[in-house]
UniProtKB/TrEMBL annotation:
PANTHER family reported for this sequence: CREG1 PROTEIN, OS07G0573800 PROTEIN
Organism of provenance: Streptomyces qinglanensis
Composition bias type Basic and acidic residues, residue spans: 16-33
Disordered: region residues: 1-33
Protein name as catalogued: DUF2470 domain-containing protein
Amino acid sequence: MFRPGIPLPGTDAEEEQPRPVEDARRPTAAERVRTLAQSSVSALLTIPGAEPDLREPGSGVPQAHAVTPEGDVLLLVAADAPEARVSAYAQDDDLTAVMEITDVAPVSVPHRVRGRAWIAGWLTPVRGEDRAICARLLAEAAPSAPVAGTSRRMLRLEVGECWIDDLWGAESVEPDAFAAAAPDPLAVHEAELLQHLAAAHQEQVHGLCACQGWEQAVPVALDRFGLRVRGWSAQGACADVRFEFAEPVGTVAELRRAMHGLFAAGG
């Protein structure tokens, strides 16, 4: 099994996360990793023997990341970053690396780290004819981080293994499954949608959880299958409840209809 330095999950902030064991429809582990890999969520790139100096702002942190149709992860890094220098002449499986993605809830709740994903593989610079295609993918992922110029380098991480430890649990993901997976269709809107629900629909969200007797109830995660709400009591006890949509949703318009259905049922 390919695993160059992937840390064991569940050993830090995640061990406190509420994780209900429930028979709910859910994105697969491969879809969850792919969603994070194609998001704007902050990541840390580590190369064994060339670990980033975390005292330096932005050290080891790609300016953008995206995924190719073939399932390789693209990384945009500063030209003077250690990972750019170390990988400059790498070929095929010369250089192993691990990208760690930390997913933080976009709303204020206890235990805001919703999970982490690790993507391990082989790192090489993007070369030749691939540069234009990869530049376009990275620009789409992060329009505010210009790809052109001599101050940045594009790197390719050929995936060897993935692991995710999140609100659904801890699972490994094979490269083929990662390549075939699609990101959740609501992911690009999730932060804005959760913040809107927390600010403008607080009473309705709390009403969904009325039987729980919680003092606070905040929407903490959203995907095409449903909404997860985190609640806590005055004593600090914390738990999650999952509300499934009648049908999976793929657009914001469909989500609005699904949320109206949930609120109507919650009464």
